[in-house]
Amino acid sequence: MLNVKRVVLRSRPGKNGHPVPENFRVEEIMKSPELKEGQVLVRTLFLSVDPYMRCRMNDDTGADYLLPWRLEECVDGGGVGVVEASKNQALSVGTSVTSFNWPWQTYDVMDGSLLQKVDPEMVDGHLSYVLGAVGMPGLTAVLGVREKGHVTPGSHQTMVISGAAGACGSIAGQIGRLDGCERVVGICGSDQKCQALVTELGFTAGINYKKGDISSALKEHCPTGIDIYFDNVGGPISDAVISQMNPGGHVILCGQISQYNKDVPYPPPLSEDTQKALCHKNITRERFVVLNYMEKHEEGLVQLSCWVKTGQIKVLETVVKGIENMGEAFCSMMTGGNIGKQVVKISD
Fold it and tell me: What SMART domains has UniProt attached to this entry (predicted)?
């Protein structure tokens, strides 16, 4: 029998409540490593925590493609691990594998058909990148920009990204620059993050929304207005950005992290002034769901891998160690405690 540590959902946040580490509980169970045909025993290497998971803490996620986590059951999300034993011909011992529905536990017996092989070369040997730059956040960034951003090289466009120092925003800004935007301005929550955007990721400027007036800072750094807005946060920040967008601009509606703790529908309702600005300036604002573009995922991952391996995209990560810290890592990420992708290292 295997001694397995796992994380279960102990309680749901209260109405309009912020998640706390105490919503989760780590427990130990004994699990049989015996395999049926087609199954593999996997050891978890890295687990992901992401903003969308806040929706899964509710009874109703508000999204038909997301199931809520069940109380007193093991939590799941993006994960990467290694095959320790196998009765699946396609997955030999030592193979690196990943899944979007990886249980938050140290070991598990899984159906091999539900796992995807990981080529360590694709991620330059950094398996955690499967959960970030060369995974779902990276795909969200590249497909969001290319499907909804309408970047036109040589047309002197300005792109603004909110949540710019997070897993998705930090990649989206770099793609905007690579695809031809003249100015790429990121909005985030600390001077340290702003500095990382400019010095490490090549953004034109970073704006700390916790300091000074956002509207004034946007006017300073976006003197010709804003053409493309990659929206990860919603709320007053997005209102300020949209008010300065040029006619015919495009909002990539990727996430609304500032609204996830509130009891509102998704996407959340806009203020009357913002609705008028969208209408009068003919600005497109369409919800972007990366799962709607499955046929483009393989090509997108190849492109992301190439950019990472050649250094054209820099990857920032915040790594916490130990499955017992999953709840802390999740809550820290939800309040901006990470720079780049937040992952939890479970084992070596």
Answer: PKS_ER (SM00829)
DSSP string, 130-185: GGTTTSHHHHHHHHHHHHHS---TTS--EEEEESTTBTTHHHHHHHHHHHT-SEEE
Query: Max CA-CA distance within the chain?
Result: 65
Beta strand pairing call for 158-162 and 116-117 = unpaired
Domains of the chain are 2-131+316-345 (3.90.180.10), 136-291 (3.40.50.720)
Residues 57, 326: contact at Cβ < 8 Å?
Answer: no
Residues 266-310: pLDDT tens digits?
677 888 999 999 999 999 998 888 989 999 999 999 999 999 999
CB 96 within 8 A of CB 112: no
Distance CA(51)–CA(162), nearest Å, equals 14
Structure token digits, residue 321: 């160690």
Q: Evaluate the CA torsion angle 29, 109, 47, 120 in order and state its sign.
A: positive
Q: Specify whether the CB–CB gap between 139 and 304 falls below 8 A.
A: yes
Alpha-carbon dihedral of residues 253, 255, 257, 261, nearest 10 degrees? 100
CA 331 to CA 252: how far, in whole Å? 25
Say if residue 308 is exposed, middle or buried (CB neighbours under 10 Å; 0-12, 13-18, 19+): buried
What is the gyration radius of the CA atoms in the chain, in angstroms? 20
Question: Element (H or E) spanning 54, and its range?
Answer: helix 53-56
- The Cα–Cα gap between 265 and 268 comes to 5
* One-letter-per-residue 3-state SS of 233-249: CCHHHHHHHHCCEEEEE
d(CA 146, CA 24): 37
d(CA 45, CA 82): 7
Q: Tens digits of per-residue pLDDT, 204-237? A: 999 999 998 999 999 999 999 999 999 999 999 9
Q: How many residues does the chain have?
A: 348
pTM of the model: 0.92
What is the bridge-based pairing of β-strands 39-48 and 158-162? Answer: unpaired
